[in-house]
Write a structure and sequence with these properties.
It is built from 2 helices and no strands. Helix content is 69%, strand content 0%. With 78 residues, the chain is mostly helical.
């Protein structure tokens, strides 16, 4: 397999989950207030839900994630 084809497959494999996450976040932030508006008439409840979503997004990157590979980083192949 040619190196450029392998690189293209690698980039595709890395880009697909990123695209799916971005699409999911866009759909959620666009349609969540509309769906909540149909379920409740309280603007405060909708604001709290949107604010909680934002707070979760702020703290998500700093949550500890267990390592997937049991190999130490210094010995992992690139």
């Amino acid at each position: 397999m040619a190196p450029s084809l392998r690189m293209g497959r690698l980039l595709g494999a890395l880009a697909l989950p990123t695209f799916a996450l971005a699409l999911g976040m866009s759909v959620l932030t666009t349609y969540a207030p509309l769906l909540l508006g149909q379920e409740t008439s309280s603007a405060g409840a909708i604001g709290i839900a949107i604010g909680a979503e934002g707070a979760f997004a702020l703290f998500l990157p700093i949550l500890p994630v267990p390592p997937i590979l049991p190999i130490p980083p210094s010995t992992r192949p690139l």
